[in-house]
Amino acid sequence: MENSNLSAIIRSRLMESGNPVILENRTYLCWLGENPPSILCDINHWDEARPFNFTKISDDLWVYPFDLPPGAYIEYAFIRNNRRIPDPYNAHRTPNGMGKYNHFFTFPLSEIEHFFLPQPAPLQGSLTSLRLPTHHLLAGKKRTVHFYQPPVKEAVPLLVMWDGKEYLERVMLPQMVEDLAGKGKIQPIALALVENGGRFRTMEYLCSEATLGFLQLEVIPTARQQLNIINPYENKGSMAIGGASLGGLMSLYAALRMPHLFGKVISQSGAFTIGEHPMVVWDLIENFPVVPLKLWLDCGLFEFFIESNRQMKALLEQKGYEVYYKENPAGHNYPAWRRLFPEALIALFEK
Known about the structure:
By secondary structure, the chain is an alpha+beta fold. It has helices spanning 3-17, 164-169, 173-182, 201-205, 209-226, 246-257, 281-287, 306-319, 334-349, and strands at 21-23, 26-32, 38-41, 52-53, 55-56, 61-66, 72-80, 83-85, 93-95, 101-107, 126-133, 142-149, 158-161, 190-194, 239-244, 262-268, 273-274, 277-278, 294-300, 322-328. The N and C termini lie far apart (53 Å).
């Protein structure tokens, strides 16, 4: 297609339906005007030293093309003078988890509806939020944990989740598990959603024995008081544990260290290797006897942890662990994790 024709078509589509413009299975982010911003996004790992730059194709029209796999979900931001500026042609925004917002789009565009949070249905079960003493094992004197009890009479398994506020509000996990259980796709499960330590989150989730101490001293005993769960001390491995990024690392570590309690793990984009430094979970898996764990691992194709997750899957399978593994055409964010979480629940808790 000649450049003048391409420019006219892109301009028309941009004015009609906004960013991005998709032509012949190619996606174009666009900018109209002089002095275009640079682009940070999932695909360049939000690396400020390696931004994507627009190319001028007519007097005031600039484009950056992407070749994406079907089902892709991409978050991005426009940057000028080290500051974010809004994309005037894309109203779709989502929190980035660090006090700012990213724009987002999908390929094809019809997929975008899957990444909006639905209006939550009223819970049939109960949700209780408690402030538990940390015993100086975590930052602060108390830590909030949210406990969900499904609307059933029988004792059920417990799933403990790190970054509990995010899984409560951005994944809407209680509503998700209640919906899946109501449809007969999973067995009913209870939840303990443990909030993180804010600026101390990294320290608490880097394979911390103190964090495991908080689990044993407060979270599990309180869950047994508040919820009708299967007794984990009489039913070995009856509990599950999960999280994303460092929370995924901490989930695998907790299960390897306490297999008498945890028999299932959900790790989303697990931070098993940071930079060139492998975390201790590699040594635990390589050098210790195999423990009875059932694991779900997923990771985004466009994120920095993809290779270490592939290597972790291979090591776990080599050692004989039961592993479910999924790669997501997305980056490192909660909308992407939310999309795959029902599959994780069905894999580990199928009725």
